[in-house]
Amino acid sequence: MGCRIYLVRHGETEWNTTMRYQGHTDIPLSDKGRLQAKLLAGRLAGQKFAGFFASDLKRAHETAQIISSLHGMEINTLPDLRELNFGLWEGLSVKEINKAFPEESKRFWEKPLFVRIPGGETLHEMANRAVAAVKKIVERHSGDNIVIVTHGGVIRSLVGTVLGMDLNKHWRLRLDNACLNIIDFPDWENGILMLFNDCSHLSGAPDCLPGTAGR
């Protein structure tokens, strides 16, 4: 039997609301983000999971804690599941980045895979570390359901890898805060995307529905 991954993007933060790039900056969930996580926890309450994994950044780890609290399970934290390190761009909006780093931002928006963000990392480096971490989880949990709570860039990289996409186009995959994605892995090389960017658990609380959230 294969492994089924329940892949969750963390709940909303204040920086998501103001469209500021977070990267490795350790921003906690907002009150809205915590409520989003609770609604997702309710949706997953009836499922049986063999493990919970999360990025070690507060926004992902706290989301995982809220979900796992209904299952009485500990969370395995993995730094390799962190968002892309945006270096000197962290805390800035797209408009501010374009103004302060015009040449670098132009190259990054066109082909982000191998463009190093000032003080940060390339998308290729992030994708390699994050996908490798998920691969280890999948290979160790044959026949299990696993929850992984992480970040938009990580999920896009994993989904894009599974689908054989050019990761330079990863930004075309919309991912809202507290969304649920499911990938079945009969084996690592044949992953099947079963569900993508599902936010139906938020529909009962209109104030929790996503807007256009930043990274």
Automatic annotation (TrEMBL):
This is Alpha-ribazole phosphatase. Coiled coil: none annotated. It is an enzyme of class 3 (hydrolase). It comes from the Bacteria. The keyword DNA-binding does not apply. The gene is pspA_1. Keywords: Hydrolase. Substrate binds at residues 9-16, 59. GO terms for molecular function: alpha-ribazole phosphatase activity. One of its GO terms (biological process) is cobalamin biosynthetic process. The active site is at residues 10, 83. Its EC number is 3.1.3.73. One of its GO terms (cellular component) is cytoplasm. Signal peptide: none annotated. InterPro entries: His_Pase_superF_clade-1 (IPR013078), His_PPase_superfam (IPR029033), PG/BPGM_mutase_AS (IPR001345), PGM_Phosphatase (IPR050275), Ribazole_CobC (IPR017578). The keyword Repressor does not apply.
